[in-house]
Write a structure and sequence with these properties.
Helix content: 40-55%
Strand content: 15-25%
Distance between the termini: 34 Å
Structural class: alpha/beta
Order of helices and strands: HHHEEHEHEEE
Organism: Petrocella atlantisensis
Protein name: Winged helix-turn-helix transcriptional regulator
Number of domains: 2
CATH architecture of the largest domain: 3-Layer(aba) Sandwich
Shape: elongated
CATH topology of the largest domain: Cobalt-precorrin-4 Transmethylase, domain 1
Number of helices: 5
Pfam family, one: HTH_24
Radius of gyration: 23 Å
Largest sheet: 4 strands, parallel
């Protein structure tokens, strides 16, 4: 997310936040927060009113609201483009697996937004073919005796190959 957008959204949420608190909530250094605030004040996107010598209330101006809306729009558009690419990649892996005679899929990883996207792709594909899927917390939960594909998507080191496919990687979908 754009630093300015994150800062504006945080100020909108907590107008009387200190610069230290802003730094902590955004993950930016105090110097970065100070520089961004000064820039936004200089171009009249926010105003600041002193409560105490070291504490201010920040208010987003109408031009700051316009900037926030523009940055938020771009962020959302970029996000949907990425979501579409992940869904396309997941569908590609599922279709290739089915062509190889694999109809059982295991979702192995954190149940986050990417989990939901991949699960949605499996649900959609289940309408076309007799596939099945389930979420697992350990590779030991894989049922023996059937052809399967383990779908992963997270940053942890998971050796890809054979039956394990990271749907975020651009590959042929052959599982190897």
């Amino acid at each position: 997310m754009d630093k300015t957008l994150r800062l504006l959204l945080t100020i909108e949420e907590i107008p009387d936040i200190s610069q230290r608190q802003l730094a902590k909530r955004t993950g930016y250094s105090l110097g970065t927060v100070n520089g961004l605030l000064q820039k936004l004040i200089d171009i009249n996107h926010i105003t600041s009113k002193a409560i105490t010598p070291n504490h201010y209330i920040y208010e987003i101006t109408p031009s700051g609201d316009s900037l926030k809306a523009s940055l938020l729009y771009d962020y959302i558009i970029d996000g949907y483009e990425i979501i579409g690419k992940v869904r396309t990649q997941a569908k590609k892996v599922i279709e290739e697996s089915v062509r190889q005679g694999i109809f059982m899929f295991y979702l192995y990883g954190q149940e986050d937004a990417l989990f939901k996207l991949i699960k949605m792709s499996l649900i959609e594909y289940k309408r076309k073919a007799a596939i099945d899927y389930e979420s697992i917390e350990s590779i030991d939960q894989v049922k023996p005796g059937i052809s399967y594909r383990i779908l992963v998507w997270n940053k942890e080191t998971i050796v890809e190959g054979g039956n394990v496919v990271n749907v975020l990687l651009n590959h042929s979908g052959d599982g190897n």
